[in-house]
Model the fold of this input.
Amino acid sequence: MKQVHALLKSTAIRSTVPKQHSTSNAVRLLYVEASINSKGYYRMILPSLELGKTAYFETRIISVKKWDFRQRSMTMTSGLFQEEEVLWADYIIFPMLWSDFTYLLKAIKGLNPNVQLVMDIVKDFDAGTNANANEDHLFHNICLMDLITVSSENLLAIYQDKLLMYEECSDLEMCVLPSLISKIGYEGLSQDSKSKDTVVRLGVICEEPYFDFYDFMFPVFRKLKEKYKDTLELIFLGSKGVTLLGESQEAYDLQITHHKTVSFLAYFQTLQSLSLDILMIPLSPQFNQELASTTRFLEGAAIGLPVIAPLASSYAEVIKNRETGILVKNFKDWTANLEELIESPEMRKRLGANAKKIVWEAHSYNTQTLQMFCDIFI
Done:
């Protein structure tokens, strides 16, 4: 993550402003308000760093900041922009704007009528859980855009249907731009951090307190621990494993190893250091699983981890069952497939190797995937 640390430092200083006229024929992309979290990393920071290396694009980010979990909405103001940056840009790419930014967007267009305004959509419009989120403001801002990029086909369909209600958006261009991984996140990581002991480490990555997930899965974990005892270690990253009844007594009995949520700057190093043998991705049944980000699979597969995830989810789009991962549908299915993975190091190795190969070939920044950005912005 050295390049991300450097970017964070340089944007904080904000000392160099691009000139209005560039000698390059490259398309100029200006990214706005990138937070150091998963969404900011995959949707703004990586595209800026990776595309900026090519001859096709020049890139710049306005404001890279560490994510504050207490602040759920953007605090962007007109003072965030400098005139030279607006005049320099061919495209200005915003995250989802939940507040009224009409004045700012029109002011940008007034200063540079040729600039194309882009909003990057990463979640459903009814998922704005903060008090300042406003669906009407979001769609009014969308209608002032020239282009919308979305992270999945499912999101594209949802927003296309919703925008039928807005006549002023009838000519709005929308396209899918999936999240990609990069070697930038894995700089400096050891190639082999697996422990040499006989314990199988089952890791669960939890970003939210999915109460119903824990209520559903703790019987699975209990059954596995009763069968494999000390040869199985359960590792939770980012959650204490709380059920609807509060702090789970089952979690205590199961001797789950808990790791607190870490800064995204330390996330890849932490994931590698856990020496996992299996990565399990939880999704709450109450959540729209078809809209879940698939980056957790990409992250695990990138370091050769076999991943197990729900079948009825967006993970079915990126995992080929029993070839690059495992897709499961119910209690019996979870238990049976986890037991098979625990008991078969050969299967874990095969799935992890297959997944690692496919994600670096098809889901990373390379010559083939660069064409997606060229098709959209050039």
Remarks:
- The chain has a mean pLDDT of 83.
- The chain is about 40% helix and 20% strand.
